[in-house]
Protein backbone atom coordinates (compact mmCIF):
# COMPACT_ATOMS: atom_id res chain seq x y z
CA UNK A 1 0.00 0.00 0.00
CA UNK A 2 2.75 2.45 0.97
CA UNK A 3 6.31 2.13 -0.18
CA UNK A 4 8.81 4.77 0.92
CA UNK A 5 12.29 4.47 -0.49
CA UNK A 6 15.28 6.51 0.57
CA UNK A 7 13.19 9.56 1.33
CA UNK A 8 15.17 12.70 2.01
CA UNK A 9 13.41 15.97 2.79
CA UNK A 10 14.49 19.42 3.90
CA UNK A 11 12.97 22.49 5.46
CA UNK A 12 14.66 25.74 4.51
CA UNK A 13 17.81 23.89 3.36
CA UNK A 14 18.02 21.93 6.60
CA UNK A 15 17.83 18.21 5.86
CA UNK A 16 15.42 16.61 8.33
CA UNK A 17 14.58 13.26 6.70
CA UNK A 18 17.79 11.52 5.79
CA UNK A 19 16.82 8.35 3.99
CA UNK A 20 13.56 6.83 5.25
CA UNK A 21 12.66 3.36 3.99
CA UNK A 22 9.26 2.02 5.00
CA UNK A 23 6.77 -0.46 3.55
CA UNK A 24 3.25 -0.70 4.86
CA UNK A 25 0.84 -3.38 3.64
CA UNK A 26 -2.93 -3.51 3.98
CA UNK A 27 -4.06 -4.86 7.33
CA UNK A 28 -0.91 -3.77 9.17
CA UNK A 29 -0.38 -1.43 12.10
CA UNK A 30 3.00 0.26 12.35
CA UNK A 31 4.19 2.31 15.31
CA UNK A 32 6.84 4.98 14.89
CA UNK A 33 8.72 6.07 17.97
CA UNK A 34 11.74 8.30 18.52
CA UNK A 35 13.13 11.25 20.43
CA UNK A 36 11.66 14.72 20.18
CA UNK A 37 12.89 16.31 16.98
CA UNK A 38 13.77 12.97 15.33
CA UNK A 39 11.61 13.76 12.29
CA UNK A 40 8.36 11.87 12.97
CA UNK A 41 5.99 14.76 12.34
CA UNK A 42 8.12 15.86 9.40
CA UNK A 43 7.60 12.44 7.82
CA UNK A 44 3.85 12.79 8.29
CA UNK A 45 3.88 16.32 6.87
CA UNK A 46 5.87 15.24 3.80
CA UNK A 47 3.48 12.35 3.19
CA UNK A 48 0.48 14.67 3.51
CA UNK A 49 2.06 17.16 1.10
CA UNK A 50 2.26 20.07 3.51
CA UNK A 51 3.88 23.08 1.82
CA UNK A 52 7.34 24.19 2.95
CA UNK A 53 9.05 20.81 2.69
CA UNK A 54 11.36 19.93 -0.19
CA UNK A 55 11.87 16.31 -1.11
CA UNK A 56 15.47 16.16 -2.30
CA UNK A 57 15.72 12.42 -2.93
CA UNK A 58 13.71 9.22 -2.85
CA UNK A 59 10.23 8.03 -3.78
CA UNK A 60 6.86 7.33 -2.22
CA UNK A 61 4.28 5.08 -3.85
CA UNK A 62 0.81 4.90 -2.38
CA UNK A 63 -1.56 2.27 -3.78
CA UNK A 64 0.62 2.03 -6.85
CA UNK A 65 0.66 5.79 -7.54
CA UNK A 66 3.47 8.32 -7.18
CA UNK A 67 2.34 10.06 -4.02
CA UNK A 68 4.84 12.90 -4.23
CA UNK A 69 3.33 13.98 -7.55
CA UNK A 70 -0.14 14.37 -6.02
CA UNK A 71 -1.62 17.50 -4.44
CA UNK A 72 -2.52 17.25 -0.72
CA UNK A 73 -6.21 16.95 -1.74
CA UNK A 74 -5.47 14.10 -4.15
CA UNK A 75 -3.52 12.27 -1.46
CA UNK A 76 -6.50 12.57 0.84
CA UNK A 77 -9.02 11.58 -1.85
CA UNK A 78 -6.88 8.55 -2.67
CA UNK A 79 -7.16 7.41 0.92
CA UNK A 80 -4.40 9.01 2.97
CA UNK A 81 -5.44 10.55 6.27
CA UNK A 82 -3.25 12.46 8.71
CA UNK A 83 -4.31 13.23 12.23
CA UNK A 84 -2.24 16.20 13.34
CA UNK A 85 -0.10 16.34 16.46
CA UNK A 86 -1.63 19.82 16.94
CA UNK A 87 -5.10 19.80 15.33
CA UNK A 88 -6.03 23.09 13.68
CA UNK A 89 -9.00 25.21 14.72
CA UNK A 90 -11.27 26.43 11.93
CA UNK A 91 -13.41 29.27 13.17
CA UNK A 92 -16.78 29.85 11.55
CA UNK A 93 -17.05 26.38 9.97
CA UNK A 94 -19.10 23.90 11.93
CA UNK A 95 -17.80 20.41 12.40
CA UNK A 96 -20.80 18.98 10.59
CA UNK A 97 -20.44 21.28 7.55
CA UNK A 98 -16.72 20.66 7.40
CA UNK A 99 -17.27 16.91 7.31
CA UNK A 100 -20.15 17.22 4.86
CA UNK A 101 -17.84 19.09 2.48
CA UNK A 102 -14.91 16.72 3.00
CA UNK A 103 -17.01 13.59 2.45
CA UNK A 104 -18.80 15.09 -0.57
CA UNK A 105 -15.53 16.11 -2.24
CA UNK A 106 -13.96 12.73 -1.68
CA UNK A 107 -17.01 10.88 -3.05
CA UNK A 108 -17.11 13.17 -6.07
CA UNK A 109 -13.43 12.52 -6.77
CA UNK A 110 -14.00 8.77 -6.53
CA UNK A 111 -17.07 8.95 -8.77
CA UNK A 112 -19.40 7.81 -5.99
CA UNK A 113 -22.95 9.18 -5.68
CA UNK A 114 -23.59 11.93 -3.14
CA UNK A 115 -24.91 10.82 0.24
CA UNK A 116 -28.43 11.98 0.95
CA UNK A 117 -28.90 14.25 3.97
CA UNK A 118 -30.38 11.34 5.90
CA UNK A 119 -27.53 8.98 4.99
CA UNK A 120 -24.96 11.59 5.98
CA UNK A 121 -26.65 12.27 9.31
CA UNK A 122 -26.85 8.58 10.10
CA UNK A 123 -23.18 8.16 9.32
CA UNK A 124 -22.00 11.14 11.35
CA UNK A 125 -24.11 10.05 14.32
CA UNK A 126 -22.61 6.56 14.17
CA UNK A 127 -19.10 7.95 13.91
CA UNK A 128 -19.66 10.41 16.79
CA UNK A 129 -20.94 7.51 18.88
CA UNK A 130 -17.83 5.52 18.00
CA UNK A 131 -15.65 8.11 19.73
CA UNK A 132 -18.33 8.81 22.37
CA UNK A 133 -18.67 12.41 21.27
CA UNK A 134 -21.79 14.35 22.21
CA UNK A 135 -23.94 15.60 19.33
CA UNK A 136 -23.41 19.22 20.47
CA UNK A 137 -19.81 19.06 19.25
CA UNK A 138 -21.04 18.56 15.69
CA UNK A 139 -22.50 22.06 15.44
CA UNK A 140 -19.51 23.78 17.04
CA UNK A 141 -16.76 25.35 14.90
CA UNK A 142 -14.09 22.78 14.03
CA UNK A 143 -11.87 22.32 17.10
CA UNK A 144 -12.49 25.90 18.22
CA UNK A 145 -12.31 25.99 22.00
CA UNK A 146 -12.15 22.19 22.12
CA UNK A 147 -9.98 20.84 24.92
CA UNK A 148 -6.81 19.02 23.90
CA UNK A 149 -8.45 15.64 24.35
CA UNK A 150 -11.64 16.71 22.55
CA UNK A 151 -9.56 17.76 19.54
CA UNK A 152 -7.89 14.34 19.41
CA UNK A 153 -11.28 12.66 19.60
CA UNK A 154 -12.49 14.92 16.80
CA UNK A 155 -9.58 13.81 14.62
CA UNK A 156 -10.73 10.21 14.97
CA UNK A 157 -14.27 11.29 14.11
CA UNK A 158 -12.87 12.77 10.88
CA UNK A 159 -10.98 9.55 10.23
CA UNK A 160 -14.13 7.49 10.77
CA UNK A 161 -16.08 9.69 8.34
CA UNK A 162 -13.43 9.63 5.62
CA UNK A 163 -12.66 5.89 5.86
CA UNK A 164 -9.03 6.21 4.76
CA UNK A 165 -6.94 3.37 3.38
CA UNK A 166 -3.96 4.60 5.34
CA UNK A 167 -4.28 6.65 8.50
CA UNK A 168 -1.25 8.25 10.06
CA UNK A 169 -1.97 9.34 13.61
CA UNK A 170 0.56 11.74 15.10
CA UNK A 171 0.55 11.46 18.89
CA UNK A 172 -3.17 10.85 19.06
CA UNK A 173 -2.63 9.62 22.62
CA UNK A 174 -0.97 12.78 23.92
CA UNK A 175 -3.12 14.72 26.32
CA UNK A 176 -5.82 12.08 26.57
CA UNK A 177 -7.09 11.10 29.99
CA UNK A 178 -7.19 7.40 30.82
CA UNK A 179 -10.82 6.92 29.80
CA UNK A 180 -10.43 8.97 26.61
CA UNK A 181 -7.37 6.95 25.63
CA UNK A 182 -9.45 3.80 25.81
CA UNK A 183 -12.34 5.37 23.88
CA UNK A 184 -10.06 6.69 21.13
CA UNK A 185 -8.10 3.44 20.91
CA UNK A 186 -11.29 1.37 20.73
CA UNK A 187 -12.58 3.71 18.02
CA UNK A 188 -9.40 3.21 16.00
CA UNK A 189 -9.53 -0.56 16.48
CA UNK A 190 -13.12 -0.65 15.27
CA UNK A 191 -12.02 1.12 12.07
CA UNK A 192 -9.29 -1.43 11.38
CA UNK A 193 -9.84 -4.03 8.69
CA UNK A 194 -7.89 -6.17 6.25
CA UNK A 195 -7.97 -3.45 3.59
CA UNK A 196 -6.62 -0.50 5.54
CA UNK A 197 -3.48 0.27 7.49
CA UNK A 198 -2.47 2.53 10.34
CA UNK A 199 0.77 4.27 11.25
CA UNK A 200 0.81 5.42 14.86
CA UNK A 201 3.37 7.97 15.98
CA UNK A 202 3.69 7.74 19.73
CA UNK A 203 6.08 8.24 22.61
CA UNK A 204 4.44 5.74 24.87
CA UNK A 205 4.03 2.00 24.95
CA UNK A 206 0.69 2.57 26.75
CA UNK A 207 -1.20 3.24 23.48
CA UNK A 208 0.26 0.06 22.01
CA UNK A 209 -1.37 -2.00 24.76
CA UNK A 210 -4.68 -1.02 23.18
CA UNK A 211 -3.71 -0.90 19.53
CA UNK A 212 -1.23 -3.72 19.07
CA UNK A 213 1.28 -2.96 16.31
CA UNK A 214 2.70 -5.50 13.87
CA UNK A 215 5.89 -3.46 13.57
CA UNK A 216 7.60 -0.84 15.72
CA UNK A 217 10.15 1.48 14.12
CA UNK A 218 12.53 3.84 15.84
CA UNK A 219 13.48 7.05 14.04
CA UNK A 220 16.68 8.87 14.92
CA UNK A 221 17.87 11.93 13.04
CA UNK A 222 15.57 11.40 10.12
CA UNK A 223 16.24 7.70 9.60
CA UNK A 224 14.69 4.46 10.75
CA UNK A 225 17.46 2.96 12.82
CA UNK A 226 15.67 -0.06 14.23
CA UNK A 227 12.55 -2.11 13.46
CA UNK A 228 11.02 -4.81 15.58
CA UNK A 229 7.69 -6.18 16.74
CA UNK A 230 5.63 -4.94 19.68
CA UNK A 231 8.28 -6.13 22.12
CA UNK A 232 10.59 -3.38 20.87
CA UNK A 233 8.29 -0.76 22.40
CA UNK A 234 8.31 -2.61 25.71
CA UNK A 235 12.08 -2.87 25.64
CA UNK A 236 12.32 0.83 24.86
CA UNK A 237 10.11 1.75 27.77
CA UNK A 238 12.14 -0.40 30.10
CA UNK A 239 15.65 0.51 28.99
CA UNK A 240 15.44 3.82 27.11
CA UNK A 241 16.70 4.70 23.65
CA UNK A 242 20.40 4.59 24.42
CA UNK A 243 20.36 0.93 25.38
CA UNK A 244 18.08 -0.17 22.56
CA UNK A 245 19.26 1.71 19.48
N1 LIG B 1 9.86 25.03 9.86
C1 LIG B 1 10.97 24.52 10.40
N2 LIG B 1 12.15 25.21 10.35
C2 LIG B 1 13.28 24.69 10.87
N3 LIG B 1 13.35 23.50 11.48
C3 LIG B 1 12.24 22.78 11.55
C4 LIG B 1 10.99 23.25 11.02
N4 LIG B 1 10.05 22.29 11.25
C5 LIG B 1 10.68 21.28 11.89
N5 LIG B 1 11.98 21.58 12.07
C6 LIG B 1 12.97 20.74 12.75
O1 LIG B 1 12.91 19.43 12.25
C7 LIG B 1 13.24 18.51 13.27
C8 LIG B 1 12.20 17.40 13.29
O2 LIG B 1 10.97 17.91 13.77
P1 LIG B 1 9.67 17.00 13.91
O3 LIG B 1 8.54 17.90 14.24
O4 LIG B 1 9.55 16.16 12.71
O5 LIG B 1 10.07 16.10 15.16
P2 LIG B 1 9.24 14.96 15.90
O6 LIG B 1 10.02 13.69 15.75
O7 LIG B 1 7.84 14.96 15.45
O8 LIG B 1 9.34 15.43 17.41
P3 LIG B 1 8.24 15.42 18.62
O9 LIG B 1 8.35 14.07 19.24
O10 LIG B 1 8.76 16.47 19.56
O11 LIG B 1 6.91 15.74 18.07
C9 LIG B 1 13.32 19.31 14.56
O12 LIG B 1 14.67 19.53 14.89
C10 LIG B 1 12.64 20.60 14.22
O13 LIG B 1 13.14 21.70 14.96
MG1 LIG C 1 6.06 15.42 16.30
What are the SSEs and their pairings?
Elements: E1 2-11, E2 14-24, E3 29-33, H1 40-48, E4 53-62, E5 65-66, H2 72-77, E6 80-83, E7 90-94, H3 95-109, H4 117-130, E8 141-142, H5 148-162, E9 166-170, H6 178-191, E10 197-201, H7 205-210, E11 215-220, E12 223-228, H8 230-239, H9 241-244
Parallel strand pairs: 3-10, 3-11, 6-9, 9-10
Antiparallel strand pairs: 1-2, 1-4, 4-5, 7-8, 11-12
Report the bound ligands by name, code or SMILES.
adenosine-5'-triphosphate, magnesium ion
Largest sheet: 6 strands, mixed
Number of helices: 9
Average pLDDT: 95
Structural class: alpha/beta
The assembly state of the depicted protein chains is single chain
Rg, alpha carbons: 18 Å
- Straight-line distance between termini: 27 Å
Read across the widest sheet, the strand sequence of neighbours is 6-9-10-3-11-12
Number of strands: 12
Spans where pLDDT lies below 50 across 5 or more residues: none
Proportion of residues in extended strands? 25-35%
The 3D shape can be described as globular
SSE succession: EEEHEEHEEHHEHEHEHEEHH
Estimate percent helicity: 25-40%
Amino acid sequence: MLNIQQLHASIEDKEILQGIDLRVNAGEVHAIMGHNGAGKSTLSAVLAGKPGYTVTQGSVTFCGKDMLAMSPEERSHNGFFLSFQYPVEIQGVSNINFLKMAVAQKRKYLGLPELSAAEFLKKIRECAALVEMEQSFLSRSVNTGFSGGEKKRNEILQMAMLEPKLAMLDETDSGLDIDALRVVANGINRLRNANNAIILITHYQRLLDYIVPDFVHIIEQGKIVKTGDKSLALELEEKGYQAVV
